Amino acid sequence: MDKLIDDEMLVAQFQSGRQNAFDELMKRYKSKIFSYLLRSVRNYEDAEDITIEVFFKAYRALDNWQPKAKFSTWLYKIASNLAIDYHRTKVRHPVYALEDMEIPEAHLVATDLHSDPVQQVEDQERGRIIREAVDQLSPKQKAVFMLSRYEGLQLKEVAETLDMAEGTVKIHLHRAVKRLQTLLRPLWENNEI
Amino acid sequence: MPKCIKSGGQAIDYAAKLLSPEEEEPFEEHLKNCLDCTEAVQSFRTVLQLTDQAQAELRVPELALQDIEMNVYKRLAAAHEQTLLSRVRASIANFGSLFRGPRIAIASAIAIALITVALLMGNLFRSESVPPLPETYSAVARIEQYRQQDIQRNLEEALITHHLRNDAWDTESRLYRMKEQADGTNWMAVADAHLQNLQSGTLDTP
Ligand SMILES: [Zn+2]
């Protein structure tokens, strides 16, 4: 698609009444936002619902949007806030957390038909254990970790997205990596992952 | 013995490639003589490698992305209807409190039902009592547009099925599905014509 028209230009077009501009923005970001949320909430249906909610909120707020930051940063901000809310609700209702453990991840993971099925099961199991470790991070640690590692955001952009000082972002990131080290190291030292 | 002070944050930043070139070079120099930091970097790298791999396995299938736009517009339209309904409820509640008695309650319940139906069928309140919300009206228009696209897609699929597989049953059920979707539009006649041709064996592909 013609990335010649940048996001902020599309927003301006939308604000002056061109509906299609919003469609173009959704087309550009739906996959990114969906993957980000899938990694964050690790539940397919919830990730989809929150993705829809992100664009719903964006649509309604876009009229008053001002280009202080990049459009994408703003979109990630909406998504991050919703993901953090989601995790908070989950903590308050531990029943859901239990249910989530039972959700088979198989359909989330792209499988390769040509590889050895036993190996595949082992790989999936390893992936699941590691993703569960990431789930144990605090919501903010998790958000910082995901945004900086997988969404290609600079620390400065992560800071804008999460309304934090850049130094705070670093602290969260360091804590996240150290926590993951504490959780995963015994497993890889015992060849369990 | 306490560990080297750099084996914490600096080692993580180095493993995650977050150090600037000016910071990176002296740290690499330091690594040559510091076992603590060398071990730390190695361990953090393993952490990042494992998590990167585990995250890369999670993928959103194309199919799931197909309906996102449609659902966003549906969500917008639903929110719009809710706004209208809550305004109606509020105004009727005010009206109801002026009178007392069960008859009034029943009457206002009926009124709510009637107004709700009217609202859902056509935008009764567009002109006066509710100020228009332009963004959601266009959302409704957009849903209609997506419906039309869906109808056309089903028609295309029906014809492709007919052409490629010559599967009359499948073609027919697709055409019926399209007709159902097309309820109230001119596309219904198109569906009927295709169904007739299919049944008489004269359905041609474009
Ligand atoms: Zn050191």
Number of domains of chain B: 2
Most extensive interface between two protein chains, with residue counts: A-B, 49 and 35 residues
Major β-sheet annotation of chain A: none
Cα gyration radius of chain B (Å): 32 Å
Quote the CATH topology of the largest domain in chain A. Rna Polymerase Sigma Factor, Chain: A
Could you tell me the strand content of chain A as a percent range?
under 5%
- Strand segment count of chain B: 0
Q: What's the CATH superfamily of the largest domain in chain A, by name?
A: RNA polymerase sigma factor, region 2, helix turn helix motif
End-to-end gap of chain B: 81 Å
Oligomerization category of the chains in this entry: heterodimer
Figure out the total of helices of chain B: 9
Write the CATH architecture name of the largest domain in chain A: Orthogonal Bundle
Tell me, briefly, the overall form of chain A. globular
Bound molecules: zinc ion
Order of helices and strands of chain A: HHHHHHHHH
| Structure classification of chain A | mainly alpha
Name the structural class of chain B.
mainly alpha
Number of domains of chain A: 2
Number of helices of chain A: 9
Please write the string of helix (H) and strand (E) elements of chain B: HHHHHHHHH
What are the key terms here?
heterodimer, A: 193 residues, mainly alpha, Rna Polymerase Sigma Factor, Chain: A, Arc Repressor Mutant, subunit A, 2 domains, 9 helices, globular, B: 206 residues, binds zinc ion
Give a description of the structure.
The complex is a heterodimer of chains A (193) and B (206). Chain A has 193 residues and is mainly alpha-helical. Chain A folds into 2 domains: 98 residues, RNA polymerase sigma factor, region 2, helix turn helix motif (Rna Polymerase Sigma Factor, Chain: A), CATH 1.10.1740; 82 residues, Winged helix-like DNA-binding domain superfamily/Winged helix DNA-binding domain (Arc Repressor Mutant, subunit A). Chain A contains 9 helices and no strands. With 206 residues, chain B is mainly α. Chain B folds into 2 domains: 52 residues; 136 residues, no CATH class. Chain B is built from 9 helices and no strands. About 5% of the residues of chain B have low confidence. The complex binds zinc ion. Zinc ion (ZN) binds next to helix 3 of chain B.
